[in-house]
Amino acid sequence: ILTSLLQKEFVRYVHVPVSGEEDLKNLQIGESIQWLLLINCGGTCDIVQEIPNLTATVLIIDSHLPHHPR
After folding, report:
1. How far apart are CA 55 and CA 27, in angstroms?
2. What is the pTM of this model?
């Protein structure tokens, strides 16, 4: 549904599946990335520490309780 909506609105996006914190650490995020949407991922770890030099706005949709609330 999300990809259909983005395509309909002509929003450029990149879909990168990750399977854990190790994949998040190895994620290459360029300066052109403005938004990062994490679905069912990222609620149990500190994203700022996992992805160094992150300048994008991060949206986290996760069914797990946050482990690092701020």
Report:
1. 13
2. 0.72
